[in-house]
Design a protein that fits this description.
Layout lengths: L3 E2 L1 H8 L29 H10 L2 E2 L13 E4 L4 E4 L22
Antiparallel strand pairs: 1-2, 3-4
Amino acid sequence: MTQYVDIQYIRNAIGITGTKESCKGCKYNEPEGFACNTYKAPSFAYVCEVLDDAPIVDAVPVIRCCDCVHFKYLENLQMTHCDVHDRCPDYTDFCSWAERKDNG
């Protein structure tokens, strides 16, 4: 299962105040580790440790109604319709019965 992390938690834990663009061309920005004096960034090993300890969200991808084969827009009535639930869902609704459209 894909794990999602809270990016702001990671940025706060590491103490990053700059952006990726800020570090381009910096002599301390090396894959084997760095200690940036400008942004007080930690070592690469510490970054990996923080990523491993970051809280994860138990989430699964969903198919929104607008991307589902059961979702229809009825032009003549100017409304949406779900063939499974026989109701008028919003484009961003979702359910466990969803099936992705081929081009969705």
